[in-house]
Amino acid sequence: MNATPQWLSPAEQDAWRSFIRLHQKLTATLVRDLQANCKVSGADFEILVALTDTPDGRQRFQDLAKSIDWEQSRLSHQIARMCKRGLVAREECAEDGRGAFVVLTAAGRDTIESAAPHHVATVRRLVIDPLGPDDLATLGRISSRILTQLDNG
C-alpha cells in the first residue's frame, strides 16, 4: 500500500461529497416517504422487491442476503420482524436441512403491490423527471461502471 495518500483534488472532493450527499439524502427521503405514505419500512420494501423478482416469490435465505447485499444476521432479524407481521414466511428446505427459504405471503404481496406505484411515482418525481434522456443514460453508465468496480473488488 502506498504510504502517501493521493488526496482528492478540489474538483474530485466536490464531486465525491456531492455524490455522498445525494445518496444519503435520496435514500433518507425515499425511506421516509415509504414509511409515511405506505406504512412500510425501507428494509421491508427492499426485501419484498427482491422476493417479487422471483416467479414464485421465494428465495433461499443466503441468496436473498446476497441479492440485497446484507449480512446474514441483519437479514435474519429483519425476516423475523416481517414474519411477525405476516409479510413473509420462513420455510425449511426439504433438500438441505440447514437451508431455509424466505417466502412472500399474500399480505406481503398486497403490501408491495400497494406501495410500489407510490414509490415509483416518487422515484420518477425526484430522479427520473429532472433528468433528460441523455443525463439518464449517463447516470446509468456511471452507475454501471462503479458497480462493476465494486463487484470486482
From TrEMBL:
UniProt-listed PANTHER family: MARR FAMILY REGULATORY PROTEIN (PTHR33164:SF99), TRANSCRIPTIONAL REGULATOR, MARR FAMILY (PTHR33164)
SMART domains xref list: HTH_MARR
SUPFAM superfamilies referenced in this protein's UniProt entry, alphabetically: Winged helix' DNA-binding domain
Domain (HTH marR-type): residue spans on this chain: 12-148
Record's protein name: MarR family transcriptional regulator
Pfam families the record matches: HTH_27 (PF13463)
